[in-house]
Amino acid sequence: MKLFKKCVVLAVLASPVLFLSCGGGKSKKAASIAVFIPGIMADSPTYAHVAEGVQEAIDEFNAKAASDADKADVYIMEAGTNQAEWPGKLTSLAATGTYDLIISSNPSMPEIATPIAKQFPKQKFIFLDAALEGNEQIYTVSYNQRGQAYISGYMAGLSSRSHKVALIAAQEYPIMNNILHPYFAKGAADAYSGTTCEFRVVGNWYDASKGAEITNALCDAGTDIILPICGGASQGVISAAGERGIHIVWFDENGFKKAPGTIISCCMTKQAKAAKETTLQYLEGETPWGTVREVGFKEGYAEFFDSDENYIKHVGEDIRNKMKELTDGLRSGKVSLPDSLN
Question: What φ, ψ does residue 78 adopt, rounded to 5°?
Fold first, then answer.
């Protein structure tokens, strides 16, 4: 991952909110952008990719600027894992009046931001991995994660010997309950008829001990493939899975090196690409405010890492061929998934 420029910490008003500034001490530029991370980047690669993509866009835009006065500033803030604090921190960020645009990524952000937008009518927001139409201060990019979840389930179903797989989530939320879990379960059952899918919740995004505890309980019940979507708690899942000799299908990044042989597949949404493109779109004055754009495998915003050496080494050719047929079909549009499984 691209390294960020050395940053300094700025305090804003009397708020406990902290900002990582890559333009501290300089006068306000042509555009000032804040990246609001609803979590901690070290525990959530999907959030780190947002910051990476925005920084790449700023660098590309500034490289073409006619003068320093035309260059944009970027500020990166980690809001922490306590969701109860996000509205207050986002409000403090908007209240400064410093940032022309606030970019974030989380399905809950439009709901949090809507009353804040009313309070600060000049503030603009872009939210990735979210959907909202009709608010002229907000633009959203929604990922069609049905394909990503289905592919992970299909891989789990093909690889499971016990025909028992599981998804461990940090928390329950609409996308988890309506898309990620059901499409993962469907993929597993479609790969091998009769495969069952357990669903367990950690309760937060950081408790690695609880992640390990749940993994061991699932293993005791016969589960041999797990999809963890639980942030820092995934470290406990990885550790327990390695000790028990079961396997993991990974979400949100190429994570094979975290546990070669234990992690047998990886896929991710291309957050960095979406963040870069939407940021450049904003800087060029072309953001379609009040709309939502949905993207997925077919549009090139999702990836299954089938060329990684660890995937080739630890997954048999027969399974790799079946996975290639599926992923190629999703990319080309020959394979389509229903909008809902209800």
Answer: -100, 115
Give the model's pLDDT for residue 243: 98
User: What's the token pair of residue 115?
Assistant: 């009353």
How remote is the C-alpha of 192 from its chain's centroid? 28
Q: What angle do CA 315, 177, 127 make, to 5 degrees?
A: 90
What does the buried/exposed string (b/e) look like for 176-190 if buried means 16 or more CB atoms within 10 Å of the residue's CB? beebbbbbbbbbbbe
pLDDT at 342 (0 to 100):
76
Please, is 119 exposed, middle or buried when counting C-beta atoms within 10 Å of its C-beta (0-12, 13-18, 19+)?
exposed
Q: How far lies 293's CA from each of 130, 131, 287, 298, in Å?
A: 9, 8, 11, 13
Helices (H) and strands (E) in the chain, counts: 11, 14
The predicted pLDDT at position 195 comes to 98
Measured distance CA(316)–CA(302) in Å, rounded:
23
State phi, psi for 141 to the nearest 5 degrees.
-120, 120
